[in-house]
């Protein structure tokens, strides 16, 4: 079957782009911190370098301007004259004085004197501005580095979903697993069915979202994810797959979006992993191979069989039939 456009990729990336925002694009600037965090790393590093470079050059120019307006640059060798900043006689020396002050290095060769009120005011302004810039940019970089997006890459989903019987009931199932030894605290899983439909009033909904019950009432959606688990959606009269049969599956067009959320045990931050299954990734009459085995004093998980399935006898009819 020809591969069609997915709403959510297998790696969890949502294929949605926002365009023609018009005046609403200003909302990104009103929340500048989140906008910077959401940018890609190359843009973050570029903004980081440009901001500090521009700030350094501007502040160094202000120190050089004070020395130029006071005439300090022309009286460098006058030992009886008290300049605003000692040993600042050109732009490079003014730049070095700013860097030494900003970084609190203090070599002692360049220093501000008490006979320069404008220099004292500029020094206070520099301290406040430097603290604000450091807090904003370093905070942005810290938040971006500590985001648990990479943790989601160690959460696995089976390549395909299966439909077979469990406990005498027809069920849609898929498998999830955690590759790390650290746990996902309060892990919860949800499923959304993305399918176009037309209302009785004639309105066409291209991407209508419907919730799939994966154990809300019984608590089965709360996962203890220390070993691979098979998530089960019972197909009954309340399920949107009530009329789904093996034959109708070939002509259906839908997408099942799976969302796994939990708290990373080591950092305490919330992590979300996503994937999706289209109709051609749902295998009728299959079951997942076991991956757990008992070794000498522990249980072993064989992830080489994580995605493997095998055929089992399953009625080709829908639950309604």
Automatic annotation (TrEMBL):
InterPro entries: Ig_E-set, IRK_C, K_chnl_inward-rec_Kir, K_chnl_inward-rec_Kir3.1, K_chnl_inward-rec_Kir_cyto, Kir_TM
Spans traversing the lipid bilayer: 45-66, 120-143
Biological-process GO terms, alphabetical: potassium ion import across plasma membrane; regulation of monoatomic ion transmembrane transport
Domain Inward rectifier potassium channel C-terminal: 155-320
Pfam families: IRK, IRK_C
Site entry (Role in the control of polyamine-mediated channel gating and in the blocking by intracellular magnesium), positions: 134
Similarity remark: Belongs to the inward rectifier-type potassium channel (TC 1.A.2.1) family. KCNJ3 subfamily.
Name of the molecule in the record: G protein-activated inward rectifier potassium channel 1
Organism ancestry: Eukaryota, Metazoa, Chordata, Craniata, Vertebrata
């Amino acid at each position: 079957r020809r591969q069609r456009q997915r709403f959510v990729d297998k790696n969890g990336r949502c294929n949605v782009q926002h365009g023609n925002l018009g005046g609403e694009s200003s909302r990104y600037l009103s929340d500048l911190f989140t906008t910077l965090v959401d940018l890609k790393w190359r843009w973050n590093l570029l903004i980081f370098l440009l901001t500090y470079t521009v700030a350094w050059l501007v502040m160094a120019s202000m120190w050089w301007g004070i020395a130029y307006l006071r005439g300090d640059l022309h009286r460098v060798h006058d030992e009886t004259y008290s300049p605003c900043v000692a040993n600042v006689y050109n732009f490079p020396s003014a730049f070095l004085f700013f860097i030494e002050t900003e970084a609190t290095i203090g070599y002692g060769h360049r220093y501000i004197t008490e006979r320069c009120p404008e220099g004292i005011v500029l020094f206070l302004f520099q301290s406040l501005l430097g603290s604000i810039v450091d807090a904003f940019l370093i905070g942005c970089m810290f938040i971006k580095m500590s985001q648990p997006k990479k943790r989601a890459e160690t959460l696995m989903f089976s390549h395909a979903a299966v439909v077979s019987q469990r406990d005498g009931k027809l069920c849609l199932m898929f498998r999830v697993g955690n590759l790390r030894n650290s746990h996902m605290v309060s892990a919860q899983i949800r499923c959304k069915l993305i399918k176009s439909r037309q209302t009785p009033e004639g309105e066409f909904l291209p991407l209508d979202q419907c919730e799939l019950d994966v154990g809300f009432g019984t608590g089965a959606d709360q996962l203890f994810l220390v070993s691979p688990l098979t998530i089960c959606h019972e197909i009954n009269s309340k399920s949107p797959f009530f009329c789904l049969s093996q034959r109708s599956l070939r002509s259906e067009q839908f997408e099942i979006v799976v969302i796994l959320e939990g708290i990373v045990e080591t950092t305490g931050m919330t992590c979300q992993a996503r994937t999706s299954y289209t109709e051609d990734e749902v295998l009728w009459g299959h079951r997942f191979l076991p991956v757990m085995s008992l070794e000498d004093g522990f249980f072993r998980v064989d992830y080489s069989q994580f995605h493997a399935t095998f055929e089992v006898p399953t009625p080709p009819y829908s639950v309604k039939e």
